[in-house]
Amino acid sequence: MKIKAIILLVAVVMVSAFAKAQKTMDTFEVQVDGLGCPFCAYGLEKKFKEFKGIKKVVIDIETGDFSFQYPSEKNLTMQAVVKQVEKAGYTPITSKITRADGTVEANEANTTELSAESVVVTQQVLVAGKCGMCEARIINAAGNIPGVTAAAWKQDQQMMKVTYDKSQVTLDGIQSEIARIGHDTKAHKATDEAYANLPGCCKYERLDQ
After folding, report:
1. The pLDDT value given to residue 58
2. Does 6 have pLDDT greater than 50?
3. Out of 17-21, 101-105, 110-114, 178-182, which region has the weakest mean confidence (pLDDT)?
4. pTM
5. Do the Cβ atoms of 24 and 73 come closer than 8 Å?
6. Which residues are CB-neighbours of 35 under 8 A, at least 6 positions away?
7. CB atoms within 10 A of CB 154
8. CB neighbours (10 Å) of residue 2?
9. 82 Cβ contact list (under 8 Å, min separation 6)
10. Do 48 and 68 form a contact (C-beta atoms < 8 A)?
11. DSSP letter string over the chain?
């Protein structure tokens, strides 16, 4: 009887400890664009393993859904998560944090609003890339820039067609943002670090500036 009582007590303590641990973890959910293969998922997970203490990483490459848990006492921010996704070479579309205390924080991709002062133009610019994943990454990065209303990129031409409000953003600014995620443009070259963070299948031939 004593042995059974001890086993029961240990089980209760373990369950209690597990429940307590769960209550001290924040849950993060991010929809990521550009995940096309297991290698991509591995690269994203590897990048987030830089966050010491990360738990329960789940990535669905078909839907782009990415979730994980992180100790609430570390107070990981939405901005830090978005930045880490971008460092991995992908574009966060939506993100949501459910804090341990039940508080929910959510963020969605940018939606540009035009005003009477808007000056909308459409231009084309050279942007280097290699595959469909590059296309998705470039288009979504451009689409998330305030002032951009539409973007398209053609792999065979290496050209991005972008429509934007000149009162909110410049073509140079758009190119700078595209370079920041790892893709060389006519006016801005991606840093070696940003280029290195791209998945292997996206390693295009660098542009000469």
Report:
1. 96
2. yes
3. 17-21
4. 0.55
5. yes
6. 41, 44, 59, 61, 64, 66, 90
7. 13
8. 6
9. 30, 92, 95, 107
10. yes
11. -HHHHHHHHHHHHHHHHHHHHHHTEEEEEEEEE---SHHHHHHHHHHHTTSTT-EEEEEETTTTEEEEEEEGGG---HHHHHHHHHHTT-EEEEEEEE-TTS-EEEEE-------TT--EEEEEEEB---SHHHHHHHHHHHHTSTTEEEEEEETTTTEEEEEEETTT--HHHHHHHHHHTT--BSS-PPPHHHHHTS-GGG-PPPPP-
| Domains of the chain as residue ranges with CATH | 24-108 (3.30.70.100), 120-202 (3.30.70.100)
The span from the CA of 176 to the CA of 173, in Å, is: 5
Nearest-CA neighbor of 48 among 8, 18, 7, 80? 80
Closest CA to 146 of 173, 127, 172, 124: 173
**Which pLDDT tens digit goes with each residue over 36-55?**
788 888 989 999 999 999 99
Q: Which of left, alpha, beta for 53 (phi over 0: left; psi -120 to 50: alpha)?
A: left
With a cut of 60, say whether residue 2 has pLDDT above it.
no
What does the pLDDT read at residue 30?
A: 92
Q: How far apart are CA 168 and CA 110, in angstroms?
A: 13
Is the pLDDT reported for residue 117 higher than 70? yes
- Pair of tokens at residue 92: 């966060």
